[in-house]
Design goal:
It is built from 16 helices and 25 strands. The chain is an alpha/beta fold. The longest helix has 17 residues.
Length: about 525
């Protein structure tokens, strides 16, 4: 690389080199009994980068992954970045056809996958990608990931990387159509990850969880943040509340990131008091609101800070933070204040910025905004109308300037001439002591146009009738907000990142009210 480029560049892969130089013997990653120091991790990242470059890959080429969390996956992510290539993480939970679509759309030169996710489809994937690398015991010898780390070539790859070069293409969930590829440059990830360190009070001594999938932007951004610092990441495969508590006690974990339902699962677990969780000092949650009962219990029982982080793939997270000092001071679906690098405003349909307490679309500006959607200039232009990034979320700024989330535009329920925010109904449902998880959607209704409908999962061992839940809702909601029906289900359809797939419920229960004028 040229001396000038090396002098002032901003590149994701450099995070690992710098930290390894300062903390070579510090543990970077814990995965079961395996422990990698920063020197080991940096060396493996460089080996993988050289392996890709020796295949003949060049700047602008894409390397796709279909992986769950593992030390191998982390090595590959930062090895791809060091090689100046484009990482394309594919959610293992999407359909085979969607995986094929993504691989074709980015013209992936290499596919790295967990054996379990491509079992029975290797020939099909090999036909799309020239090179297939497999993680797992069932991998053929020639395909094994370990083969990529056999070289002694551990020097930093000499690759010319610009801060605005595309580093990642992350595809949106595609719940309403063809998934869109979000183009993210090195600068966006680098700066967002630095801001997170300050916003979430991270320190070098932290030992942090790696529970949420790294193919998702939120967990990836946090991984980069902790690697900047030289902290330790503990990979926790799957999520079993008791196994999680054992790991916290064993590894003395200080910092965790999870879904509200994960916190509820271990805070209310029968074995909760058996484990020493006193090492925990910071608990970040995302994707869904935290009910006040769980929040109060968590703060009291764990004695640590709780915070909510928000963002989206198109605006690398976090864009705003609902901070510890506001958690119990403010009540409702708050997203908090803008991060250090983000401007937040509320905009009407005509592009005018609104004042406090006026509801409109949440819009952002900042160095962490996407470069655009892959091969989709129309959607790119729509997302950046009037010089701001449009989130598709509705909200308002309260009297103190804190952002209050109202609803996704598409999730607002229009019933009997009134607008009902689904999240407001969901917060009440989740606060019912016997409810583990819940969601509210609008379903077609002859009288109400859309009927507010609740789908509820009860906590293990608990019993409740729909009448019990409706009575509780009537105490805490306006009459037009109370669900017309409560459906108690064993589980809710979730994405691998824990988001409830409302479209599946809407499709499945489309005719629930066909012969009902409730």
């Amino acid at each position: 690389m040229s001396e000038i480029t090396a002098l002032n560049r901003v590149a994701i892969g450099d995070i690992i080199r710098r930290t390894a130089a300062k903390n070579p013997d510090k543990t970077a990653v814990v995965s079961g009994e395996k422990r990698l120091t920063y020197k080991d991790f940096n060396d493996d990242c460089n080996r993988f980068a050289h392996y890709l470059l020796d295949l003949g890959l060049q700047k602008g080429d894409s390397v796709a992954t279909i992986c769950g969390n593992s030390w191998q996956f982390l090595v590959s992510i930062f090895g791809i970045a060091k090689a100046g290539l484009i990482w394309v993480p594919i959610n293992p939970g999407v359909s085979f056809n969607e995986k094929v679509y993504i691989l074709s759309e980015v013209q992936a030169k290499v596919l790295l996958a967990d054996e379990v996710f491509i079992k029975g489809k290797k020939e099909e994937f090999s036909a799309i990608c020239p090179e297939l690398i497999v993680i797992g015991e069932g991998a053929l010898e020639a395909e094994k990931f370990e083969n990529t780390l056999q070289s002694n070539h551990t020097a930093e790859p000499e690759v010319n990387i610009g801060d605005r070069d595309i580093a990642q293409i992350m595809f949106t969930s595609g719940t309403t159509g063809t998934p869109k590829g979000v183009l993210i440059n090195h600068q966006a990830v680098f700066i967002a990850s630095l801001a997170n360190i300050i916003e979430a009070g991270m320190v070098k001594e932290d030992i942090a969880t790696l529970i949420m999938p790294v193919f998702h932007c939120a967990q990836h951004a946090l991984v980069a943040s902790f690697f900047h610092l030289g902290s330790t990441l503990v990979i926790i495969p799957g999520y079993d509340p008791e196994a999680f508590m054992k790991t916290v006690e064993k590894e003395k974990i200080t910092w965790m990131f999870g879904l509200p339902i994960m916190y509820r699962a271990f805070l209310y677990h029968p074995s909760f008091k058996k484990y020493n969780l006193s090492s925990l000092r910071y608990c970040l949650y995302a994707m869904a609101p935290m009910d006040r009962n769980t929040l109060e219990k968590g703060i009291k029982e764990l004695g640590c800070d709780f915070a909510l982080g928000s963002g989206q793939t198109e605006m690398y997270p976090a864009t705003c933070v609902f901070k510890p000092e506001d958690q119990l001071r403010k009540s409702g679906p708050y997203w908090g204040v803008a991060s250090l690098i983000t401007d937040i405003a509320i905009m009407d349909e005509k592009g005018s910025l609104l004042g406090k307490k006026e509801v409109g679309e949440i819009v952002h500006r900042g160095p962490n905004v996407m470069d655009g959607y892959l091969n989709n200039p129309e959607e790119t232009n729509r997302a950046r109308q009037f010089g701001w990034h449009h989130t598709g979320d509705l909200g308002y700024l309260d009297e103190d300037g804190l952002l209050m989330f109202v609803d996704r535009k598409k999730d607002m329920i229009k019933t009997g001439g009134e607008n009902v925010a689904s999240i407001q109904v969901e917060q009440v449902l989740i606060s019912y002591p016997k409810v583990l998880n819940a969601v509210a959607v609008g379903l077609p209704h002859e009288r109400w146009v859309e009927a507010v409908t609740a789908f509820v999962v009860l906590k293990p061992g608990e019993t409740a009738t729909k009448e019990d839940i409706l009575a509780y809702c009537k105490e805490h909601l306006g009459s037009f907000q109370v669900p017309k029906e409560v459906v108690i289900v064993p589980e809710l359809p979730l994405t691998t990142t824990g988001k409830i797939q409302k479209h599946i419920l809407r499709d499945k229960y489309q005719s629930l009210y066909s012969n009902n004028l409730v």
